[in-house]
Amino acid sequence: MPLLEITGLTKRFGGLQALSNFSFSMGERELVGLIGPNGAGKTTVFNIVSGFYRPTEGSIVFRRQLLNGLKPHRVTSMGMARTFQNIRLWNDLTVLDNIRLARYARLDYGFWDAVLRTGRYRRAEKAVETKAREVLELMELAEYAGEFPKNLPYGLQRRVELARALAGNPRLLLLDEPAAGLGSVDVEGLIRHIRWIYDEFKISIWMIEHQMKVVMSLCQRLSVMDFGCAIAEGTPEEIRRNPEVVRAYLGDGAL
Amino acid sequence: MQRYAVNVLFCAAAVALVGLAQAGMLDKYVLTIITFMGINCIFAVSLNLVNGYMGEFSCGHGGFMCVGAYTGSLLSVAFFTNSKLFGPALFPPELAPFLFPLVLIGAGSVAALFGLIVALPSFHTRDDYLAIITIAANYIIISVVENIDAIGGPRGFSGMRRVVGAMSDVADVPWMLIWTIVGLFVCVMTIYRLMTSTYGKGISAVCQNEVAAEIMGVDTNRVKIMAFMVSSGLAGLSGALYAHVYGYVNAQAFNILKSTEGLVIVYLGGMGSISGVLLAAIAFTLLVEALRFVMPWLNDILHAANLLPAGYELSQVWKWVIIPLILILLMQFRPEGFLGNRELTQVFPRLKRWITLK
Amino acid sequence: MEIFLQQCVNALQWGSFYALIALGYTLVYGVLRLINFAHGDIFMVGAYLAFYISTAFLAPEGLFGFSRGLTLALTIPLTMIFTSLVGVTLERIAYRPLMRKGAHRLYVVITALMCGLVLENGNLALLGASRKTLPALLDKSVYDVGGIAVTNLKLWVIFAAVLVFFALHFVVTKTRMGMAMRAVSWNKFALPLMGIPLDSVIVFTFVLGSGIAGLGGMLFAMSYPVLEPYMGAMTGWKAFIAAVVGGIGDIRGAFVGGFLLAFVEVMVAAFLPSTFRDLFAFSILLLILWQRPTGIFGRPLISKI
């Protein structure tokens, strides 16, 4: 049984066909890349899978459950987490609070517990705190716990976002262009981090990435999109040699 | 023990205040002003939850105060007095001091339910469009109240004075001052504790990046409902207190001008700062009252200096020209409010040693 | 049926007032993303200015002793000019310094609210509570169109609103300044690249918006010739709501919203107890906004993920 199974996914925005009949499947413990030229519909796939858009047609099955039409926070609580192309951290909350909030879906207390500071509240908060500190420690961010994300350099913000995604204990991590805007030194560090996360947390990762260096050195399998359709799938080596892919990236004249 | 210093100070001040009032050392006027100060504090701090922490621009907070004021008044009149509207009292008047919290809770709960008028549209609407919905809600609430003739319609509703009287018959203490202090304490604690819990920080998350909040597992719709309901519920509490201090309610007292007053206090104090808003509420109430005395004095001075034509007297209307002008100037000098989005303890870190709200 | 048509004419007249005020809200919002809450009071200032200017000119008591026609012809442009001066002054001394400092948007909104209060109460304090009455500048004549009585003044009001709409549409789509205004509403930072200073565009917007509100105030004063300082507050709030229901930032929206609100109000007042007017008007607006969160002509809020 695959971890994530997408069948015949189609999305239309008014008259614009952003995705047509996209199918994809990945198993547990896989690290898969999704590549394609700009505007190919990669982020749309992620947005549908994580619940921001409703698919026009098709189905998404994650851990044997149908995701169609679920709100993002429900999808998240089923064990999926994602990061964004442009960083979306809560800039006026500390790094620690950013991580703590990732445990929100698992909080087992309510409004009155928070106001009356019941035992249940104290236990839950203690657990959240411990978990958040642990994640920060693992991601080498402990020293920034009290900082505000807006004051951190770009590379660190990316790492905080990654840490936040991990703090929810996901089974599947979606990374939307994690290397966007990073310098070459930071990219090296990112590759190291992602590989380490993949080994350490025993999770599956599906990533969109433009930088070939990242994709080629990390992914076991790649799928390629163009104009809302999947056009190829295979190992990085196969993809590199696939004429369809080369045409999509470089145009017809290249061959 | 040191960390409890401010708490002890607060309690001591409260006790001292009540003691002074009890001993008759406080003028009735001063006592009323202090009580209204507390009510304004509750009103503004509750508005701050939505406008400061959640970053929405609610300009109809007066409407919820209105709901609370009327609900509280109706409940207490029905509970403790014989009235034409409800017939004989449900409880003996001697129980008034003990059952009054029920009235406050009832007022808060009903006002919280009315908060849904704004909370439900807020799922799809944001910013200025939501601001309109809040304004419309304010008008609608007032209009509804004015159209129900049984509770007085545009003439207003009274009878609460007898309830306060019944409380004083049981024990002759300044009851409304005590209830206001209790109400303020409950309000500040609720919001402080909410906003320091991970659960409540969902509100900040929605404010700062709603997309990220939703994707990290925050049920944004539930957070919005919670914030609006808590905020309007506490506004309802302030309304119920107001009604009993005043002894009379009229829907027009809670129109858009009342809401504006709340907005001014929140933005003057700093969005998302409880201590800032408390300071601003106190300062605002004092300013309004102080100017009442300053106006005649100013009039005399200006006449003495021959700056005013002889036939012209500076009326109290000028107060409402001067107050907005002062506020405009304050905004120019501190365009983020007294404290910005920080608390007093963050501006003066040493205070931390003296205070705990856990 | 006749009552209905008669009320339609009234609704068109009220709608014209709302539309003329709503335009000012919408123009300023489109350019600055600022809800200029003082705008309703600018309308009031316009009405008072019209009163002072026309009494200064008009024959029996006025200084100049002009005829009514000439007075009217002079009052219209002068009212508009002076009202726009008031609007620009507010922008200059209250809003601009605050925006320069990078204050939160809502602080500017609160300042606008306070400016409105200053105008209202300043007026009350200076001129006292006695109500002013605008002298009649127009010979009143009533036309009978199929049983419906229409005064010439009502026709003028509606005509003026329609004229303003087309003139504004022309300004915004055809002139350089108008196109700059539209450019700002899309992207504030690209404008200096076109070689037009942002400040001129903002001032121009305030001139347009306040001038139109001044015209509205004058027409209002001619139709209901009793002036009081708070006349702008309630009308202003309502016009603002009309602008938002239409879709704030859109000129067509201001018109449609204004007429819609007036229609609902007039019809409710005509066929139901008049105390229900606000209740129905606002409930309907709430429902519209619930269904179309950005108003009738508003662009949907799309946040790119």
Task: Enumerate how many helices of chain C there are, as a single number.
Answer: 10
What is the structural class of chain C?
Answer: mainly alpha
* Rg of chain C (CA only): 19 Å
Task: Give the N-terminus to C-terminus distance of chain C in angstroms.
Answer: 53 Å
User: What's the overall geometry of chain A?
Assistant: globular
Provide the CATH architecture of the largest domain in chain A: 3-Layer(aba) Sandwich
Considering the protein shown, what is the CATH homologous superfamily of the largest domain in chain A? P-loop containing nucleotide triphosphate hydrolases
Count of distinct strands of chain C = 4
Description:
The complex is a heterotrimer of chains A (255), B (358) and C (305). Chain A is an alpha/beta fold and 255 residues long. Chain A is 39% helix and 23% strand. Chain A folds into two domains: 1-79 and 170-255, Rossmann fold (3-Layer(aba) Sandwich), CATH 3.40.50.300; 88-163, no CATH class. Chain A has helices at 42-49, 72-77, 95-101, 111-116, 119-138, 154-167, 184-200, 212-218, 236-241, 243-250, and strands spanning 4-13, 16-26, 31-35, 57-62, 65-66, 80-82, 172-176, 204-208, 221-226, 229-234. In chain A, a hairpin with a 2-residue loop joins strand 1 and strand 2 (16-26). The longest helix of chain A has 20 residues, at 119-138. Chain B is an all-alpha fold and 358 residues long. Chain B is built from 15 helices and two strands. Chain B has helices at residues 5-22, 28-53, 61-80, 96-114, 116-119, 127-147, 160-170, 175-196, 198-208, 210-215, 220-246, 256-269, 274-304, 319-333, 344-347; strands at residues 157-158, 248-249. Chain B is globular, with a radius of gyration of 21 Å. In chain C, helix 1 crosses helix 6 (176-186). With 305 residues, chain C is mainly alpha-helical. Chain C has ten helices and four strands; from the N terminus they run ααααβββαααβααα. The mean pLDDT of chain C is 87. Chains in contact: A-B, B-C.
Name the features.
heterotrimer; A: 255 residues; alpha/beta; Rossmann fold; six-stranded mixed beta sheet; four-stranded antiparallel beta sheet; 39% helix; globular; B: 358 residues; mainly alpha; ABC transporter involved in vitamin B12 uptake, BtuC; two-stranded antiparallel sheet; 15 helices; 70% helix
